[in-house]
Amino acid sequence: MSTEATVDPVVALVAGHPWVAGAHAAPDGRILVRPRPSATAARPVPGPLLHECLDHWAEVYDWVYQDAQGRHTDDLDLSGWRASDTGLPLPTEHMRDWLDRTVDLVLSRRPRRVLELGCGTGLLAHRLHARLDGYVGTDVAPAAVDRLRRAGLPGTAFVRAAAHEAGTADVRRAMDTVFGAGVRPDCVLLNSVTQCFPSLDYLAAVLHEALDAVTDPGTVIVGDIRHSGLLTDHFTWLERARSPESDPDTLDARVKAAIAADEELSFAPEAVAAAVATHSRPVRMSVRARTMELNTELTRYRYDIVLHAGVRPRTGPGADGVRRARWSGHQSKGLPVALRAALSERPVIVSAIPNALLSDAPGAVTPFALRRALHGLDAAVLLDADDPRMLAVAAPADCAYAASAPTTPVVRGPVAHEPLTAFVRRRLPEVLGDHIRRLAPDTTPPRIAVVDGTGEATP
């Protein structure tokens, strides 16, 4: 019997699976399949393959929170927070600094009612609830939700729900209990959770849910985002730490392979700008640098976004009335004096400040040094709109929204690294193999590979 005759009935079985849009036999005996778009869609509801990716992270974090190896106290459970180069827990004082900076960012928007999507172990809930009229947190991990409910924090409620479920009845009931019947949050918070999202489409769906949920005007804060434009820098640092003797070609190959295998979402601010541009409400965006003192991956390669919804942005050149200036350095005057001079004519955005964590350019400064030099001033430390390896400063802080778009076209690397493609490449053949074994138990399933949109088998 020919290989083709043997494979054909199996191809038919595979092609009939509801997650498959098409299947055909390859000359090498493999079955090549195209996923059905609805299986990986984020809207109107997550497709089954995307849902499996979300379930994977829910299981991972539920196990991590049950294990609780990083739990110091009720309000400082750092389970899961480990350095990616060593696998060791991140320094506790660094994590306290990380928390303080996030709390400062949230409270700078003066919220009264916060809905946090992906609240984890409650690191922010414990620090925010007493300073609000109400707080509602959601998470996919039952262990986290159950523990937070038992903590009995006043003015709070916790719901088991995924990030895209902000509009569900369970979340609405929790908000009715804490905020009042029909009352909406004035701040929706997603902190250190987007790395578990499967795709940009899912990110867009969650952001639209958050913008639908928040008051008008209101704030959506997306914190601790992995920047796709710094992904090569990040993985080069990791691979050098793991194999410091590697030659440049070997290092480059290892970095590319590590990025391809990365299971976490990273994205540039442009991805968020594109997502919110299609929302029915006007949205302004500012991109904030992480300003912790220690030089770690959390400070170097991550950033925050603040979305202000419901205020129509000004348009046209100079319509915002904000002066733009390029940083001229501080060697002769010292950083605090030079900054104050540069910010004296406000509102102003001073850009092109080399980030000493990512650049050895003359006059480079760290985000922490900028924050310290700005102490007592109404100002914000930003990522430069044209280069994520640069910093900027906005004074007053609210004019940061005028810096959300690049002033000139630049090449900054990929807009996003989306893990869903690799997940589907791995998971769909497993599902289809089980499908064949169930419907044709006497058949040995052939190798199955997922093809991309051009019909080529993905590597």
UniProtKB/TrEMBL annotation:
One of its GO terms (molecular function) is methyltransferase activity. This is Methyltransferase domain-containing protein. Keywords: Methyltransferase, Transferase. CDD domains: AdoMet_MTases. It comes from Streptomyces rugosispiralis. Signal peptide: none annotated. One of its GO terms (biological process) is methylation. The keyword Methyltransferase applies. The lineage of its organism: Bacteria, Bacillati, Actinomycetota, Actinomycetes, Kitasatosporales. SUPFAM superfamilies: S-adenosyl-L-methionine-dependent methyltransferases. It comes from the Bacteria.
